[in-house]
Request: fold
Amino acid sequence: MGIKDTVRKKSMELMGDPRVLKLMQNEQFMKAMMTVVQVPGKVNTFTEEQTERFASMMNLATSKELKDLKRQVKKLEGDVERLKKKLEEK
Reply:
């Protein structure tokens, strides 16, 4: 039995507990839980924004920009190969 199965089993046991059911009906608790669930996404977004801002200030390329440049280079290399083949055919 893995961790995922253990967590699933425990959560199902908790959902059957009347105290947990009462807590789940509390609007303030549910708002707090939703806030807690959103924290990792907000932290990730904030970190990405700050990384991009820092890279921009330091004139550094971000990983996204590097991927775009690599994609463009591959496309241009393909274009050059096609043009070479056209010239050889003539």
Summary: The two ends are 67 Å apart (CA to CA). Helices lie at 3-15, 18-24, 27-57, 63-89. The mean pLDDT is 91. Residues 27-57 form the longest helix (31 residues).
